[in-house]
Amino acid sequence: MGSLPPSATAESPDVSSMDLFSLQGKNVLITGGSRGIGAAMAVALAQAGASICLAQRDVSNTATADQVRKLGRRVVVLPCDLRDMQQSKLIFDRALEAMDGRIDVLVNCGGLLQRKDSVDVMEEDWDNILDVNLKALFFICQAAGRHMIPRRQGKILNVASLNSFIGGNRVVSYAASKGAVTQVTKALSNEWAKHNIQVNAIAPGSIATDINTDLRSDPQQYAARVARCPAGRWGAPADFAGPAVFLCSAASQYITGEVLVIDGGQMAS
């Protein structure tokens, strides 16, 4: 078979099945990796062989970095508050400098959620959620594209939500932002596939993390979520380890523009 034209996606490598999931030698930048789903994904990617750059607001939280170090992987922690657009626009280049001039994988997991009646949402509330969940995400993706396009390779994984597809309750700004994340993911995948860059997203359902402690502490809300889920339980951050490795590795070379729903079957029901 002849060489691929410059506008084509590289074929999946002819290696063993397990080697397809290897991230040995890859550099990963992840936002929101200090806890919850982001932490689980960061550790999973390190277990697969990657070096990790964590962009996090609270650099005193070393839990994820400590886990990565215990695996014998390189880890760099950079301070970044995604609410500050200047910091968001610069974080990718700062990560490049910290990771020897190369980022192979970007994972956008940083985000905010606010529960509030729609009639009470203020402009500041709206802007806070959209700035972090959508605007910062896009400009970090943009910086990644500028780096990955000339190199003709790269993986981007965004975190959307089940609320990308269903409106939810009292989360209007969050639902709007996450719906937009799915479209940004698809739009970038359309543009960048010809540069051998895969852009995908995951959409968590009801997952037991700090972001929904209020729901889980309410017995009725907790039980209602379980009742709606065919899997019969809330999800856990560990449920994202496998999907993250899959979508950030050569195992997903011919997959782009997809949103993988991880919800125990809730949306299907």
From TrEMBL:
> What molecular functions are annotated in GO for this chain?
oxidoreductase activity, acting on the CH-OH group of donors, NAD or NADP as acceptor
Q: Which residues form a coiled coil?
A: none
Checking Pfam families in the record gives: adh_short_C2 (PF13561)
Positions of the Ketoreductase domain = 26-240
The protein's UniProt keywords, in alphabetical order, are: NADP, Oxidoreductase
User: What InterPro entries does the record tag this protein with?
Assistant: KR_dom, NAD(P)-bd_dom_sf, Sc_DH/Rdtase_CS, SDR_fam
Question: Residues of the signal sequence?
Answer: none
Q: What family does the entry list?
A: Belongs to the short-chain dehydrogenases/reductases (SDR) family.
Can you say what this protein is called?
Answer: Related to 2-deoxy-D-gluconate 3-dehydrogenase
